[in-house]
Amino acid sequence: MKKLSVLIVALILATGFSNAQKPDGFYGMWNIEIEGGSVGWLHVFENKCFLDARLLWQGGSVLPVQHVSVIDGNHLMVMRAGELSLDGENGERKMIQPHYLKITRSGDRISGVSMQAARNGMGTHKMKFYGWKSPGVPSKPNLSDATYGNPVELFNGKNLDGWKLLNPNQVNGFKVENGVLVNDPVQKEGEHIWYGNLRTEQEFEDFNLTLEVNIPEGSNSGVYLRGMYEVQVVDSYGKEVDSHNMGALYSRITPSEAAEKPAGEWQTMDITLYKRHLTVKLNGTTIIDNQPVYGPTGGAISADLYSPGPIYLQGDHGKVLYRNLVLTPIVE
């Protein structure tokens, strides 16, 4: 009897979803453009006979969702949830802040509505979005095949010519001091100032980018390639390797080893983006070696993986200094 029960369960799991609810068309990676100009990324897959997904929504990391279910072959419901801590009668109380995505698929395109509860539960914030199936990553390129154009000096050491705020309605914390590009987003007591990110006016496709950066203790920034992929800039000296540490592709690719210097020291970064593959050398050590890049990272300004874009520097986290930013385009 026990063997028969196990066989029945196995047959049920093997059968999986009914034909009316078969989610095959949703499997894979989807790039998402969100109302208001931000970006998302959804990966739908089967996990031990369960439908599963990972989601990036606007900023932060790619995270597992709490639930995903197919309504029928062309409709999907995704739920992720944040956790809030409140004071309760018997001590701290945990509450869930739900976020739902209702998705409709038409071939390799999707559209839908995001419904996110307000933190206090007093209302729901809705945003429309649309997306498309992410194109497959090209095979690993041979970096020696790349043909380079003329180097472009992104920062002239004198002023912010060639740069502008990503959002002109935010405050610019970047300035030039003694030939160095300094971001110093100082906050005032009792008031939160929204500092902006700084982007190049020029846009680029594939390239090699070299720069020097000095990160005070506890500070954090990021270098966005084509406005789409964030290479992390953070004081992570002495920590175990992680996809959120210095030189990582944020939340995606963990450095092969820790090569950062202590806070307050100048560090060198040598970054190559070529055919959707990333190489990062930190202080002369290769920590990401020609690795594929799947989809935009949090804070991206576009989900179009083949469109040119700017270099942009994150400006809202802490004091960081940059100098000697030189970009050499790949013209192949």
Structural class assignment = mainly beta
CATH architecture grouping of the largest domain: Sandwich
Q: Provide the domain count.
A: 2
The top level CATH class name of the largest domain = Mainly Beta
User: Might you state the CATH topology name of the largest domain?
Assistant: Jelly Rolls
Strand content: over 45%
The number of helices is 1
InterPro entries: AL/BT2_dom
GO molecular function: hydrolase activity
Keywords: Signal
Pfam family, one: 3keto-disac_hyd
Entry summary:
With 332 residues, this protein is mainly beta. It is built from one helix and 22 strands. The termini are far apart.
Can you put this structure into words, describing what you see?
Mean pLDDT is 90; it is low at 1-20. Helix content is 4%, strand content 47%. A nine-stranded antiparallel sheet has the order 4-3-2-1-9-8-7-6-5, with no helix packed on it. Strands 10, 12, 13, 15, 18, 19, 20 and 22 form an eight-stranded antiparallel sheet that branches. A five-stranded antiparallel sheet has the order 11-14-21-16-17, with no helix packed on it. The protein is globular and about 55 Å long. The chain has two domains: 16-133, Lipocalin (Beta Barrel), CATH 2.40.128; 143-329, Jelly Rolls, CATH 2.60.120. By secondary structure, the protein is mostly beta strands.
